[in-house]
Amino acid sequence: MATAAIQLLFAPRADWWAFCWPLPWYLTCLSALAWAVLRAREKGSQGPPDEEPLPDPWDRAA
Questions:
Q1: CB-CB contact of 17 with 11 (8 Å)
Q2: Using one digit for the tens of pLDDT, what is the confidence trace for 6-50?
Q3: C-beta separation of 10 from 3 below 8 A
């Protein structure tokens, strides 16, 4: 009975299968686009790198 239920729910001839089949591809593209936008915003919000980094405690001790 379990295999019959699985076959009934996940059969490609189900009406909703045409919508669900490409859904992972759409989600992958949308998540890659969202990552690129968020990464660009993160990079844009950072200031330019310092020319002279602050000395750490070990350099000051020497």
A1: yes
A2: 777 777 677 777 788 888 999 999 999 999 999 999 998 887 766
A3: no
List CB contacts of 8: < 8 A, sequence separation 6 or more. Answer: none
Q: Which of 57, 37, 55 is nearest to 45 (CA)?
A: 37
Distances (CA, A) of 23 to 26, 39, 47, 61: 5, 24, 38, 59
**pLDDT for 20-32, tens place per residue?**
888 899 999 999 9
In whole angstroms, give the CA distance from residue 50 to residue 57. 18
Q: What is the C-alpha to C-alpha distance for residues 18 and 25, in angstroms, rounded to an integer? A: 13
Type of residue numbered 55: P
